[in-house]
Amino acid sequence: MVTRVDNVAKIVLDTSYIDVKSATLAGQALKFTIAERHPHLGSALTLDLPEPIATAGTELQIKIDYATTEKCTAIQFLEPEQTVGQKYPYLFSQCQAIHARSFVPCQDSPSVKLTYSAAVTSPLRVLMSALETKSVENASNSTTTYHFEQRTTIPSYLIAIASGNLAGREIGPRSTDTESFIKTGEDLLTPYEWGRYDLLVLPPSFPYGGMENPCLTFVTPTLLAGDRSAVDVVAHEISHSWMGNLVTTRNWEHFWLNEGWTVFVERKIAGRLHGEAERQFSAIIGWKALKESVELFGENSPATVLKPDLSSGVDPDDYFSSVPYEKGFNLLYHIEKTVGGPEVFEPFMKAHVEKFASESVTTEQWKAFLYEFMEKHHGQAVVDKLNTIDFDLWINGTGMPPVDPEFDTTLADICYKLADRWDKARDSQDFTGFSPEDIKDMKADQKIVFLERLTDTKPMPHSLLAKMDELYHFTPIRNADIRFRWQQLCVMASYEPIYPHVVKFVTEQGRMKFVRPLYRLLHRATNGKELAEKTYLEHKKFYHPIAAQLIEKDMGLN
Ligand code: BES
Ligand code: ZN
């Protein structure tokens, strides 16, 4: 919690693997110390002020001269050979959750909000999570200095930079899909505050599907599958323009307020634009992702709690999973149903943004305002309904949510039926009833649900996998989500013909959602352990430092 006090004599900032050369206040050198490193949290940088600042609210300008180091976890530097063009180097950052401190000394907590401006000199184009105000060419050394300003207050994890041989494409004022997502977000919530909305497609080693850097969402190139699979991620990142970027989690224990709300809004947008059946279908996919996370951690694991306890210095990256996303979504969805549906709940959602925009909030504040709003607008009757919800179990309990959501399976039924037919054929080995027609009319998401259903059964016989591939041509498919699900199903069965394709997939892109489970499964599969380790070690430099660290943990290499 941010409180301002008088007589401040020291300033403490977070750093991680940063080389501080000097610190000055109005030209005068400051004494500073760098504390011993905490394994995940880094080293506190303490600046001693010559004399205490008497009154809270006094502004002062401190200049820190520092360099990042080789060990910087926020930034990946790519050699020219690691880029598509092969000619120019590239760099990009990923600060969420606690990596900003390895890039800038700062109060690296989402409870603190800041505006920033930056002047960055580079021979290559620079972009930041801010508005570009001007760029000045330096004729003498053929560099350009790019100036940026982020005028809306943001948490430090939203500071972002990328530089390389970047090409821009103007795709409409805000492009058609993105425009309708933003418009729907504005209808549901408040006007879009950030001026611009740009998308930057990152190099393949970008470790996430998307990152909601303000003004400039970062996305993985695995979205460019030639189908419409990219749009969900974009709708998700746009939804963060309100949930997360305006109303921010107070600390990483309340991370679900960012992601659960964002998934909820993302699915509201999908529902408004494509109908309720689509929203229900996405929720079904989310439920399955949640189930996988709970199975991975174990149903009693503290990592499956909606509001986990991170006080012992847990690394938020270690707890990253579908839990905050999907348990969070399900809690909001359950509340919506309980209080009387969208007519009652959507106005609360808007009021939540209006009330907390530019603040950093806790689960307790969120809940108190939910009650306050419902009481004020709907009286005791709706408060009584809220009281039927076991909030403590939802928020602090482990494992799957306490209530079965009973999503509408209209779009999922054909996927389940087809999966059940294959499951039955495993014993008879009679595949005569199957043909490419089975999946011809399925959308990408339906193929995913079909494959996911099969990963829920015991490992498939190899003859069945071979037949399925012959009929459905899953192995060469470009859509990364389908490719992932297919490879997962095959590796679970130790189906060795897939191994070279898995190696190719996990070394040509570094999105953790795909590479971590595939490495984990390959490591456990028959004749897979050495292949997984060898593949990783040979391509270690390809991965972003955050991904590398987690893959190593997953395979017990560190
Ligand atoms: N903010 C997250 C990514 C993130 C979370 C990075 C925590 C670091 C720490 C982003 O908005 C996100 O959720 N991305 C998802 C997209 C999906 C849910 C549509 C991803 O990367 O898969
Ligand atoms: Zn998100």
UniProtKB/TrEMBL annotation:
SUPFAM superfamilies hit by this protein: ARM repeat, Leukotriene A4 hydrolase N-terminal domain, Metalloproteases ('zincins'), catalytic domain
Taxonomic superkingdom: Eukaryota
PANTHER family: LEUKOTRIENE A-4 HYDROLASE
Name of the featured protein: Peptidase M1 leukotriene A4 hydrolase/aminopeptidase C-terminal domain-containing protein
Any Pfam family matching the protein: Peptidase_M1_N
Organism: Syncephalastrum racemosum (Filamentous fungus)
GO MF term list: epoxide hydrolase activity; metalloaminopeptidase activity; zinc ion binding
Domain Peptidase M1 leukotriene A4 hydrolase/aminopeptidase C-terminal span(s) in chain numbering: 410-555
Lineage: Eukaryota, Fungi, Fungi incertae sedis, Mucoromycota, Mucoromycotina
SMART domains found in the cross-reference section: Leuk-A4-hydro_C (SM01263)
Active site: E237 (proton acceptor), Y325 (proton donor)
Subcellular location: Cytoplasm
Binding site for Zn(2+): H236, H240, E259
